[in-house]
Write a structure and sequence with these properties.
Blueprint lengths: L3 E2 L12 E2 L7 E5 L2 H13 L6 E5 L6 H10 L6 E6 L7 H14 L3 E5 L6 H6 L4 H13 L2 H16 L14 E4 L3 E3 L1 H5 L8 E7 H6 L3 H12 L3 E7 L5 H13 L5 E3 L29 E6 L4 H6 L6 H13 L3 E8 L3 E4 L4 E4 L2 E2 L1 H19 L7 E5 L17 H14 L11 H9 L16 E4 H9 L3 H11 L8 E2 L7 E4 L1 E4 L2 E5 L9 H6 L7 H13 L4 E5 L20 H6 L4 E6 L3 H10 L2 E6 L4 E3 L4 H19 L4 H15 L1 H5 L6 H17 L1 E3 L11 H11 L14 H8 L32 H16 L8 H19 L1
Parallel strand pairs: 1-2, 3-4, 3-5, 5-6, 9-10, 9-11, 11-12, 12-13, 17-22, 17-23, 23-24, 24-25
Antiparallel strand pairs: 7-8, 7-10, 13-16, 14-15, 18-20, 19-20, 21-22, 26-27
Helix pairs in contact: 1-6, 2-3, 5-6, 9-13, 14-15, 22-23, 22-25, 25-28, 26-29, 27-28, 27-29
């Protein structure tokens, strides 16, 4: 069998024998914990006169040949060997037995320490260092942290040379303040590095990084924030669910109220499940000063894999650092460091796996944070905001298109709200029609006659070239390869004395602008332009966002409604790089996105790829479809038919023919599946179809962002929301029709019944209504009518089941609709 060489920059899994290639040293340390190896490597590098040290990953020493070679070449010729064995002798029996036997024979002291804080008598029995030294070395490693790592090495040297022994291990706080170069500090020490009056930005990260030497990304992010005029406050915690950590954060936030919060911990504090109880999110406590929380990812993957791929992060990283934190409402930024690759530490002759920061990703997060902090600090009258309207498909008839949203009315209303809030808004349109006419006066995405339109704003080619020249080389090449030079763009206009300009669809209203989002391409299938994974945007697209960011100097960009096309541009799925098109276009801009509440999937695309803060808006008002026109006539004929069957059989044939004729005339026979082979079967199908159709839930208009429905629209929407069960469907979360059926002792499920089946049950007077009451569908209709009156306050709940639902409506549903 051949032994593999331990290659710098590579970590093996121990299935093959490995030659670590290590020379003897004063101290040899073996551990399966990457964090310990990294911490000791950093500690040794920080010491002025450290003893020689070899670090070995226990995963390299799983094969017997690896163990034998390392003992023979390195360990038996060194002066002290310390190994941490997680899981005891059973986990690494051959290694424990061989190191113990051979080092005893060679006279080399050996400390076999447990890999956790639980004593292991078997490991202690095989060790040959004094008990006092055994306990001291173990304690330094259990407590962790830079100071204890240095003292571990110093103690080992004192054990060998008889020098003065360092102080005992100092327990690391469960939560506290850190500062690069100073280690664990306090708020007063950190304030010495701050700028008076600058926004405070806590960086919350795991205590394990302090214990295990993974602080490089935290240190780099701290410095990046500081040079941008912010006051960083690095805070380590055991967990956001830990009471001591939460209390520490509360004290720090009270003493130094945050403007923004950067969070590098994983998972979520809250729960997506209604009714779940748990610890309060400390990042949302009152002391947190309503600071937006941005999620910073310390990836466990390899930087090279991230660089080359399109997924962005591994499934584990997405679950721990993206999907679950989204439950707490955190805004995803970027991955600022990677751990999957090892770097080879020549001093310890060991590959070290730890978090290593990526400078341009750190800069992006720092820029984004600074921009949000600047936005928060600015007086409303000075804030500059861009409202961007979607246009899909790219025809003038679909300008300002948003799913379920009356986008023109919502935009006009938003302009009014901004003016009321103190933003400088001048010359704003007073109606949707006025806004749309103003947009149509300028260049839109419909290219047929855009050259004849005189509106819009101009963006000089010279300024565009500056912006374009700052993009990554590969990004520029992709755009030019697909669309040619900027001068070939249909939105470009040549100049007689200058290099020309772009004409952009933008309306200016003081410090607020309204712009029409450009198409992803022209003369391309509109479906492809929105969702193609590789179609790069044309020059006018980049010019539009460059003008917003650099000429207009927007403090924030708001995309009005589902959905635009920015978040669908080519690039990684999340944890974007500088070359990903959404980042190239938008940059580190504060991004707000009103989005329909019932489509979180597509909203997630904007959150993960364009750092969007999603502001959910209501669906359009919902109501029962009911029947009208020919269908209302058909319903009456069907009721009359079944009534005649019992009292006037002579009319049955005539009514049946009328029903079939009207069904054919309206096309309902095809919709229902009436085959004409069995008239009775066809009539039963039609009856069931009409019953289900009238109970169907449909939209009743469009929603206007910032306005809640009122009157009948509010009542119908509330009724629609409680028509089906929520959560576990119990108590106040039960479906209102089911609760009413239970209170009236009707003995059926109104959400799951044969609508056309004859109704055999009771007919309570409270449910009396005009029209026939012959089928289950008629009973369901009466329950719906009673529910409407109940929600309007015209009647009282008939029993405890519906009373519980009404309490839930008053406590949660109606306030949510009105918010």
């Amino acid at each position: 069998m051949h032994l593999l060489a331990a290659t710098p920059g590579q970590i093996d899994d121990g299935r093959d024998p490995v030659d670590l290639g290590q020379s003897p040293a004063d101290v040899v340390f073996i551990s399966a914990a990457d964090t310990e190896l990294a911490a000791l490597a950093e500690a040794r590098a920080a010491m002025d006169a450290a003893p020689t040290l070899r670090l070995a990953n226990l995963s390299h020493l799983c094969h017997p040949m690896s163990v034998d070679l390392h003992i023979d070449v390195c360990a038996s010729k060194s002066r002290l060997v310390v190994a941490r064995v997680l899981g005891g002798i059973g986990y690494w029996r051959y290694g424990v037995e061989q190191y113990a036997a051979h080092l005893h024979e060679a006279g080399v002291p050996l400390a076999l320490l447990p890999g956790d804080d639980k004593p292991d008598p078997d490991l202690r029995r095989l060790s040959t260092v004094p008990d006092e030294a055994y306990d001291a070395l173990w304690a330094y490693l259990v407590e962790g942290g830079p100071e204890n790592a240095v003292n571990f090495i110093n103690y080992a040297r004192a054990l060998l040379d008889g020098g003065e022994r360092p102080e005992p291990a100092r327990p690391l706080l469960r939560a506290g303040v850190y500062w690069p170069g100073a280690g664990v500090a306090d708020l007063a020490a950190v304030r010495a590095h701050w700028t008076d009056g600058a926004p405070v930005v806590p960086i919350v990260f795991y205590r394990a990084l302090v214990q295990g030497g993974g602080l490089d990304p935290i240190a780099k992010l701290t410095e990046a924030l500081r040079v941008r005029g912010l006051n960083p406050l690095p805070v380590f915690v055991a967990s956001l669910k830990d009471p001591v950590s939460a209390a520490t954060l509360a004290a720090l936030f009270s003493a130094a109220p945050p403007s923004m919060i950067l969070n590098a911990t994983s998972f979520a504090v809250g729960s997506p499940h209604d009714g779940d109880t748990g610890p309060t999110n400390p990042l949302a406590m009152p002391a947190a000063n309503a600071a937006p929380v941005f999620q910073v990812v310390l990836s466990g993957g390899a930087e090279a894999v991230w660089e080359a791929g399109l997924t962005g992060l591994s499934a584990r990283d997405i679950a721990m650092n993206v999907a679950l934190p989204e439950v707490d409402g955190r805004v995803l930024t970027r991955a600022i460091s990677f751990k999957g690759e090892a770097w080879f530490d020549t001093a310890t002759e060991c590959p070290i796996a730890t978090y290593r920061s990526r400078a341009d990703r750190v800069d992006f997060v720092a820029d984004l944070t600074a921009n949000w902090a600047r936005l928060r600090a600015k007086p409303e009258a000075e804030r500059r905001v861009a409202l961007v309207l979607a246009n899909y498909p790219n025809k003038d008839g679909r300008l300002a298109n948003g799913v379920g949203l009356d986008t023109p009315a919502a935009t006009v209303h938003t302009l009014g709200l901004l003016a009321q809030a103190g933003y400088r808004v001048t010359g704003a349109p007073d109606s949707s029609d006025a806004l749309m006419q103003a947009i149509l006066a300028g260049p839109t995405n419909w290219l047929t006659d855009r050259a004849e339109r005189q509106g819009g704003v101009e963006f000089s080619m010279a300024d565009y070239q500056i912006f374009f020249g700052q993009l990554p080389d590969a990004t520029r090449a992709a755009i030019v390869d697909r669309w040619g030079p900027p001068e070939a763009d249909p939105f470009y206009q040549s100049g007689e004395v200058d290099c020309g300009r772009f004409k952009l669809s933008v309306l200016c209203f003081g410090n607020i602008v309204v712009g029409l989002q450009p198409a992803r391409g022209y003369n391309v299938d509109p479906t492809d332009t929105y969702h193609s994974p590789d179609l790069v945007p044309p020059h006018n697209y980049l010019a539009f966002y460059s003008w917003l960011r650099h000429d207009f100097r927007a403090d924030a960009i708001v995309h009005m409604g589902k959905h635009g096309n920015l978040e669908w541009l080519p690039g990684k799925a999340l944890a974007l790089s500088a070359g990903c098109m959404p980042e190239a276009v938008l940059g580190p801009m504060p991004h707000i996105y009103p989005f329909i509440v019932n489509d979180p999937g597509e909203g997630t695309q904007a959150k993960r790829r364009a750092q969007a803060v999603i502001v959910d808006h209501l669906t359009p008002p919902l109501t029962r479809a009911d029947t009208y026109g020919p269908m209302k006539d058909l319903e009456a004929l069907v009721d009359e038919y079944y009534e005649a069957a019992g009292v006037d059989p002579r009319r049955i044939a005539h009514l049946r023919q009328e029903i079939l004729t009207l069904s054919a005339a309206t096309g309902l026979d095809a919709d229902v599946g009436m085959k004409g082979e069995d008239e009775m079967t066809d009539l039963a199908k039609l009856d069931a179809y009409l019953c289900e159709l009238k109970e169907a839930q449909i939209r009743d208009g469009l929603h206007v962002f910032g306005l809640s429905p009122e009157g009948r629209l509010e009542r119908d929407l509330v009724q629609a929301l409680v028509r089906v069960p929520r959560g576990q469907g119990q108590g106040g979360n039960a479906a209102l029709p089911r609760a009413l059926a239970a209170d009236f002792a009707l003995g059926f499920d109104p959400l799951d019944c044969d609508m056309a089946a004859p109704w055999p049950g009771s007919r309570p007077d409270a449910l009396a209504a005009p029209g026939a009451w012959r089928s289950h569908g008629d009973t369901v209709e009466r329950l719906e009518l009673f529910a409407s009156r109940l929600i309007d306050g015209e009647v009282s709940a008939p029993g405890p089941a519906s009373a519980a639902v009404m309490d839930e409506i008053a406590a949660r549903v109606r306030p949510a609709v009105a918010a």
